[in-house]
Design a protein that fits this description.
- The protein is an all-alpha fold and 73 residues long.
- It starts with 8 loop residues before the first helix and ends in a 6-residue tail after the last helix.
- The chain is built from four helices and no strands.
- The relative contact order is 0.06.
């Protein structure tokens, strides 16, 4: 298998923090609990708004405008 020539900054930081743990973990996460927390945080940050919630809010806004007679059909 071909190895990448790029090295992630997080891997450099992990090695700088504790080289023995980094090498012992084979270059992977050596604290699984924190790795899961980091993955969950990145998933929340990268997740876009829900399309269903957006559509529901638009429908509620249109219904309110129709009810208040701001717009007419």
């Amino acid at each position: 298998m071909r190895r990448s020539k790029n090295v992630a900054v997080s891997k450099i930081a992990a090695y700088a923090e504790d080289p023995h743990k980094f090498v012992g973990a084979g270059g992977g996460a050596y604290n699984n609990r924190l790795a899961k927390m980091g993955t969950a945080a990145h998933s929340r940050i990268g997740a876009g708004p829900s399309k269903g919630i957006f559509i529901a809010l638009v429908l509620v806004a249109i219904a309110a405008l129709l009810y208040l007679k701001v717009i007419k059909l």
